[in-house]
Write the structure tokens for this entry.
Amino acid sequence: LNSTRALQGLWFRLVGWAFVFLALASARPARSQPAPHLVVPPVLAMPAPAPDRSGELPVVFRRELPISLSDLRAIQQQVETLVPKISPAVVAVELDSGSADGIVASGSGVVVSADGLVLTAGHVCESTNRSVRFEFPDGKVAHGKTLGLDEDADTGLMKITGSGPWPYAPLANLREASLGEWVLALGHPGGFDSKRSLVVRLGRVVSVAPGVLQTDCPISPGDSGGPLFDIQGRVIGIHSAISSSMAENFHVPITEFYDTWQELAGVPVPATPAYCGARAVNDAGGCRLSAIDKDSPAAKAGLKVDDIVLKIEDRAIVAAAAFERWMAEASPGQTLKLQIKRGGKLRIVKLKLE
Amino acid sequence: MKPRLFHSVFLLTAALWCGTQTAQAQDDSAPMLPRSRFRSGEEILAAFSPVSAAATNSIVEVNVDGDAVALGTVVDAEGLVLTKASEIKPGKLTCWLATGREVPAVQLGVDKDEDMALLRVQAEGLKPVRWASGQVVIGQWAITPALAETPQAVGIISALPRRIQPGRAFIGVRWSPELSVPRVEGLMPGLGAEEAGIKPGDVIVAVNNELVTTVMRVSEIVQAMRAGQTVHLKLERGGEPFEVNVKLMVPGREAYSLRRNSRLAGDTSQRAEGFEQVIEHDTVLPPWLCGGPVMNLDGEAMGINIARASRVATYALPADLVQQILARLKPASTSQ
């Protein structure tokens, strides 16, 4: 009960702060732009996470604390190397409010695929199908639309209309961020400033709660929707909210994007859902099957409890929610190809849904 | 115009409301990293002590009438110290040293453009900082040492050096267009005049103790000041005189009140705009600890902290600019 109440408190905070962040409205006249015609493919897949290379990092990143100047130099070296690699994918976003006075709301975002999918915060999108102007750190400008958002999770998705390829950042795989992990916050506090460009901040993960990462990377209005990178340069969160405390900077974990992908990408749900007969939970190894109904399609396909589902139709499954979404979106009679791991061995299973 | 202003009022309300929520939700919930292991927690700062311990004799703590107002950067062995000018209010000037002694100091000169003051401290054993040469790099550690063995706080260089425009400041009133007398017709929401309780119909009779009779004169006085400074006004309402202090603000896109005044930004320097060039770093530094050096891992001063600018930014004047300022201030002051 206690934890439920704490969670509600968090939501209050997040939802409340979302309003604060939206605030970066300016009276600059909206730039006239051609209304881009956006062709949304029927299913937009969330890009697969990049592999974990933490083993290759300097030893200081496996320590709880830096203990010497050479540790500090190693951190500095890593950050200096990383910043030019991850910066090109970080965008300032400006959205037309649609009102006659030309008020423009601004925030940040990060491109995560070569074809121009942009992750941002839900409160930056505010609604679907809004025109967005993207500004890259090198000054290049692109146009696009908001695709979808989840207000509760504060996740949002946009798409650049131009053909690309766009510079993009890799995503972190599904795992709990660890306390004390070094992270980099990038974004455009105060809105896009051509003389300054984006602003980089270094901090540590100071708290991990369901749906919320807290860091001591100072962020501020205008950063909303910008990326939080792990020290390997993979996106692990999106800036969402702050409080008056400098140590209270809240980010939506990347896992929330996987979990709300259906709302974000606007994937239609079929009228009659297919029956699978397996349930999945999140596990250290990924998506683990926790229950199989007797005589169900899952049982007939030979799936067993504790199987780890790695791929469905060659798409990576990193969370139970992704597995459930596939099942929810599949049609009765459809056969899906699953790659699973059982006792350290990989297997391919054909699952015919009913 | 209207919707935006409404917006900021609404936001402020939302901000305050949320602050309350935060205070309530702060207790148990998720596991927290111990504060001592936050980026500027003492266990992290300890790793920087080889740099900061070597710098303590290059730093003074500037006091006015016994209150700490700034740090100072020692720039020569004879006791010349640079600090942030706008923090040095009139009063008895002393400096605390790392040795634990408090010594008298005198102000020799001020560079108003860059907000630097040159002091002379009566003390021996002071060690001038070594200046860093070359460009800073985004991602470099930015260490702010003080008088202790461990640094006051640390951060990283977070944006490339650039010029910071002076912000044009406003009291926040609209004048009656047909009158030359400074009679308030309306208020700009969220700005200083409204906060100070000025109302339409009030007439300004004096600005900073200078009697004024025209709108033009009021504007001239205000335009010579900067955002963040406070202007003293004498007014009349229905024949009754009263006085208020009004903080000058910049209206417009950055929602000034959100950035500067609110609890979101934390404490920021009164004078935080109008610099020829600054290095931006993300160190969370109280405004009264500006004026000291910001160092790299080699213990060289990359610059002098000149302003706490926002929740995300502390500005430092880069080393080469500081040395130019020092050269300008020094001849006038040493050839007395």
In short: Chain B touches chain A through 65 residues (CB under 8 Å). Helices of chain B lie at 2-25, 42-47, 49-53, 192-195, 215-223, 256-261, 319-334. The mean pLDDT of chain B is 86. Chain B is about 20% helix and 30% strand.
